[in-house]
Every structure is written in structure tokens, then in C-alpha cells.
Amino acid sequence: MSLKDDLEAEVAETFETKWTTRDGQVVPSPADVKLGNDAVKLKGTVLYADLSESTAMVKSKKDWFAAEVYKTFLHCSAKIIKHFGGTITAYDGDRIMAVYLGKSKNTSAVKTALKIHSARQHIIQPALKKQYPNSTFELKHTCGVDTSNLFVARTGVRGDNDLVWVGRSANWAAKLSDLPNTHATWISAAVYDVMHESVKLDGNKDNMWEKRSWTPQNGATIYRSDHWWKL
């Protein structure tokens, strides 16, 4: 069978085969989902933590310096994600994706974002400045958080495959993390409306979040904050 014939057969089979789905209680691994039209359904909150302006950094800085920035940011983000019960589902270049489940999934994801902001400001940046006192480089990032139903399928080929996360929260969290890094955390109204008061109000009981209208998403209500939580 030629490559063209093989591709045509696989594509036709995917479109013709009925899906088998089941409700999930935990974040699946690729081994938990079949390569065919098999999927797990979840109610999940997705967080993306994205290192800002990495393209410019790679162009203007030494490769080893950029690698150190990548490694420290992703390491701190991953540790904080796991501490708050998130499951890391992907490392995508300069960003990390995580999924949270359960009753407190929105609060946990937002706590993660606020702690990542703290780690960037109070751990990574000071350590960078200590090691390279003449450097003017300032690390910046953005976290995006949304919640929705998710449809988790397995994609790729045998021996080389991974999960694909289909649902608004996976898409919106990634897009929210692309918004201006003047505010380190951007969340959807669906997250804001149900998260605990402890991540809405600061120590003076003032709201930490600013309401905005997201024009590219038909004016959807979103919230932004530049607050951080002490580690």
C-alpha cells in the first residue's frame, strides 16, 4: 500500500467510525485511551503558564542563558502545579499546560497562577540578578485559566502519540495566556464566578480582579490581575 493509500484509508476510517466515550474521574494518560475513536469526558479547569517574549530572548541572548530561563520558569511552574493538585498534560516550548479536577478545581488553578507569579518575582528574577548582576533582562509571563467540559482523545501513530484536549477551556486558557503580560493572570468569568473568595479578595478585602471584555471572543467577560500569593 502506498503512503497516499494508507493516509486515505486512515482518514476515512476516522470519519466513518462511531466514537466510544466514557466519563472520567481522573486525568487520563495516553495508555488509558485507545488510538481509535475512543475518548474520555471530563469537567476540567485548564491552566496555561506562558513565558513571555521568548522569541526575542532567544534572538538576543546566549542559548545557555535562554535555556536557564526556560528551565527555571518551567520547573517552578511544574512544582507549583503539582502542589495544588494539577496534572501536567503538556510542555509546549516555553509554556506548560495543566488540568485540574474536583470541586475546588477553579480555586486550585487560580492559586497556582498567583503562586507562579510570586515565584517569578521573588525566586527566579532575584536568582537571575544575583548570578548575572550586569544583566537587565526581566522575566515576564502570563497565566490563562478557563473551565469547561473536555473531550480527551488520543492522536498520532502507533509508537508515537499523545492526548488531544478538545473543549473551550483548553482553547481559551491558551489564548488567555497570550494576552498582555501587564497582568500576570487572566481568567474567564466561568472560573471567577465559582472560585473561592480567598482568591478574589486581598488582605484588605479589596477585589484583586479587574473585569474586562474580550473583543476577539465576542465580548466575553474575563478578569485580569497582577496580584501574587506569597510562597
Structural write-up:
The chain is an alpha+beta fold and 231 residues long. It has helices spanning 3-16, 54-60, 63-83, 105-131, 168-176, 189-192; strands spanning 20-23, 38-51, 87-92, 95-100, 141-157, 160-166, 185-188, 210-214, 220-225. It has one domain (38-225): Alpha-Beta Plaits, CATH 3.30.70.1230. The chain is built from six helices and nine strands, in the order αββααββαββαβαββ. The radius of gyration is 20 Å and the shape is globular. The mean pLDDT is 94.
Task: Tag the structure with descriptive keywords.
single chain; 231 residues; alpha+beta; Alpha-Beta Plaits; nine-stranded mixed β-sheet; 35% helix; Nucleotide_cyclase; Adenylate/guanylate cyclase domain-containing protein
Summarize the structure.
InterPro entries: Nucleotide_cyclase. The chain has 231 residues and is α+β, with helices and mostly antiparallel strands.
| Proportion of strand residues | 25-35%
Q: Estimate percent helicity.
A: 25-40%
Instruction: Work out the radius of gyration.
Output: 20 Å
CATH architecture: 2-Layer Sandwich
CATH topology: Alpha-Beta Plaits
- Mean pLDDT, all residues: 94
Q: Biggest sheet, open or closed, and with what strands and sense?
A: 9 strands, mixed
Structure class: alpha+beta
Pattern of helices and strands: HEEHHEEHEEHEHEE
Overall outline: globular
Which consecutive residue ranges, at least 5 long each, have pLDDT under 50?
none
Instruction: Tell me the number of strands.
Output: 9
Q: How many individual helices? A: 6
* CATH homologous superfamily grouping: Nucleotide cyclase, GGDEF domain
How many domains? The number is 1
What is the straight-line distance between the termini? 58 Å
CATH class division: Alpha Beta
Protein name: Adenylate/guanylate cyclase domain-containing protein
InterPro entries: Nucleotide_cyclase
